[in-house]
Amino acid sequence: MCPAPISSGEPLGLRHQARLDALLRERFADRGGFCLSAPWFANLYLFREAHAYRFVDGALPYVSGLTYDGVQHILPLFEPATASSDELDALFHSADCLFPLSQSQVDRLDPQRFDWASSRADEDYLYLAQDIRDYGGRLRAKKLNLVRQLLAAHEVQCRTYGIDDLGTCMFIVQEWMAAKGKRQGEADERACLEALAMAPQLGLTGFVYFVGHRPAGFVLLQLLRDDYAVVRFAKGSEVFKGIYQYMFRHAATAFRSVNWLNFEQDMGLPNFRQTKMSYGPAALVPKFRVRVRSR
What's the pLDDT tens digit per position in 106-145? Predict the structure, then answer.
């Protein structure tokens, strides 16, 4: 049975959550390995419009969409290695690649049938949670000093994020947008506000931070496993130097069972890359684009 064409299916929505959660966890949980940050319902839903995601169910279910660099792709919710050539040809008729696939997934592919490659801009930044808790080593010494300076100058308080904090966090987002010179709707504003409003439903958890009585920042994470979390959103006030370093350290400490923190990709943006490298990642986790070899 050949899959439906890529233009079919439905715009990805909340009605697909239960089905997609089951399919994604089966394919991408990678128990004991390094999970990719992208192929999870919360992320797909929050960026559904930015990437034009559509869900096609059936014998070979998949999500279609556009990458950040404008490539039409398919996120396979089936095992590509078991699909027939005719089935794959039908998918690739209007899609450039399968994406994102993990290292363990491409390791199961036949190199005689498939080509694959990864881009530095797509790679996830993975950190040992203990390195963020301690900020140990010369590379992270500045992070620890910023936390100490913040605490020497201010009293920082935090609480677990709840829906009652939505207004407070909306203020933080607005302040962040203004400080970055962003207009309404730019950057990840819409996705961030929606994540705050729907955090419990999307499986997101986190903290909101105050310096004195002034809102100073928040962080939202998604626990993919007991030992593995993705930092989905983090916004802080530029008024309080060191607030980001403090938030990351606190969040890592609060989730003691977490051994790995995934800070997602840098999308090829120099500022993102410089900042994420400055925390000393333990690994860069590739996301592969897979194509069928010409017959």
Answer: 999 999 999 999 999 999 999 999 999 999 999 999 999 9
Answer yes or no: is 273 within a domain. Answer: no
Does residue 4 have a pLDDT over 80?
Answer: no
Q: Taking each helix axis as running N to C, give the angle between helix 243-254 and helix 141-153, from 0 to 180 degrees, rounded to the nearest 10.
A: 100
Please indicate, yes or no, whether residues 168 and 118 belong to a single structural domain of this protein.
no
User: Is residue 100 within 8 Å of 51, Cβ to Cβ?
Assistant: no
Domain membership flag for residue 62: yes
Contacts 24+ apart (CB under 8 A), 9-14: 9/54, 9/55, 9/56, 9/57, 9/64, 10/54, 10/55, 10/56, 11/48, 11/53, 11/54, 11/55, 12/44, 12/45, 12/48, 12/53, 12/54, 12/55, 12/63, 13/45, 13/48, 14/45, 14/201
Asked whether residue 280 is assigned to any structural domain, the reply reads no
40 and 117 housed in the same domain: yes
**Domain of residue 131, residue span:** 124-264
pLDDT tens track for 233-265: 999 999 999 999 999 999 999 999 999 999 999
Residues 91, 133: one domain?
Answer: no
Same domain, 40 and 157: no
Cβ proximity of 119 and 288 under 8 Å? no
Angle (CA) 155 127 246, round 5°: 5
In whole angstroms, what is the distance from residue 244 CA to residue 216 CA? 9
